[in-house]
Design a protein that fits this description.
The chain has one domain. It has 3 helices and 13 strands. The strands form 4 sheets. Strands 1-4-5-6-7 form a 5-stranded antiparallel sheet, with helices on one face. Strands 9-8-10-13 form a 4-stranded antiparallel sheet. It starts with 6 loop residues before the first helix and ends in a 6-residue tail after the last strand.
């Protein structure tokens, strides 16, 4: 007969049923540690995401600020370089104005320090001592250019080679010179902009339009031939010193003032542009500083516009300074 006794029984090994395994949960301490680690990982990821986003926004704002500065510089340089241009293909083209009396030519370049400007349709008005952050005013005059000869049967039409500060093509004229006025004004939203004042070629009325948003100040100096000779005396075609507009104005002697402006050989221009709120990574008191639109070497304690202190308001800022040499005769 076959022995069916299990082998372990035959070897004297007894089997007892094993006790069921007890499943234990996390203790409160383990749970808290796990939550803390998860929170730390989440905070680190959030901080990295925010830093990356701020860096991207700062790069984007910096790029936009540089584009604005480049556009403003290019436009202003082109407008100022045209000062005194005359289209000699127009017979007897010698534009005159009445500001200095009779047939005396108006200056092709002139300006005012720390002056506010309003431009209704009837013409500009100036408010001395009211410039935004001490901003100056720069006025530039020049003739236009046309492909065709200006006659009674052929009205004035600009060919696009000569434009005003608003980009309008200016044609030939034998009357009052067209004028472009550059200044800074604050909009209804409190944001300052570089402005252009001009005569609308369609309506014949004065108008104004913003050119570049975020320009906090515009500062201008005028390079004259020599400070050591009577005004109006020609000594050289190169500027020897740069003076503010106040040094060239002579309200009681218009003829002398005209001679003063005719001495100008170059125009030095400085601007401070700012980006939107939150564009700067460094903020607070440690970010407070002072900008010098014309450079520290041209800083004048008596001219509040030659420096621009600002607080750490979270805005990027860029200073733009350049010099435009006048290529056309100013007399």
């Amino acid at each position: 007969m076959m022995n069916l006794t299990p082998s372990f029984a035959r070897h004297g090994i007894s089997r007892t049923p094993s006790s069921p395994t007890r499943q234990r949960g996390l203790t409160l301490v383990e749970l808290m540690i796990g939550l803390l680690l998860a929170l730390l990982v989440t905070l680190a990821a959030t901080a990295a995401l925010m830093a990356s986003r701020q860096g991207f926004s700062a790069v984007d704002a910096t790029s936009q600020l540089r584009d604005n500065a480049r556009f403003a510089s290019t436009l202003v340089q082109r407008v100022v370089a045209q000062a005194g241009y005359q289209d000699h293909s127009t017979p007897g083209a010698k534009p005159n104005g009445s500001r200095f009396g009779g047939a005396t030519p108006v200056p092709f370049v002139e300006g005012q320090d720390d002056t506010g400007v309003t431009i209704p349709a009837t013409g500009p008005s100036y408010q001395s001592g009211k410039g935004v952050n001490g901003s100056d005013v720069l006025s530039v005059r020049f003739q236009g250019s046309s492909l065709a000869t200006l006659t009674a049967a052929n009205p004035d039409a600009g060919d696009g080679s000569i434009i005003d500060c608003a980009g309008n093509p200016l044609g030939k004229t034998t009357g009052q010179l067209p004028e472009s006025i550059l200044y800074v004004a604050t909009g209804t939203d409190g944001e300052p902009s570089l402005m252009c004042g001009f005569v609308n070629p369609t309506t014949g009325q004065w108008s104004a339009q913003p050119l570049v948003r975020g320009v906090e100040t515009l500062q201008v100096r005028y390079g004259v031939d020599s400070p050591n000779v009577p005004p109006g005396t020609k000594t050289t075609d190169l500027p020897q010193t740069y003076l503010p507009a106040s040094a060239l104005l002579a309200p009681s002697n218009p003829q002398q003032e005209l001679l003063n402006w005719q001495r100008v050989k170059a125009v030095r221009i400085g601007m401070v542009l700012r980006g939107p709120v939150g564009s700067a990574l460094v903020r607070g008191p440690q970010a407070a500083s002072t900008a010098y639109p014309l450079g520290e070497t041209m800083h004048d304690a008596g001219d509040k516009g030659s420096e621009l202190p600002y607080t750490g308001d979270g805005r990027l800022r860029q200073t733009v300074t350049f010099t435009v040499y006048l290529r056309n005769p100013q007399s």
